[in-house]
Amino acid sequence: MQEQEEKYLFSPNLFWDADMSDLDMDKHASYVVGRVLDYGSLSDWVLIRKYYGMEKIKEIALGIRSIERRSLALIATIVNIPQNKFRCYEQMQSKTSHWYF
Question: Is the pTM value of this prediction over 0.85?
Answer without folding.
Answer: no
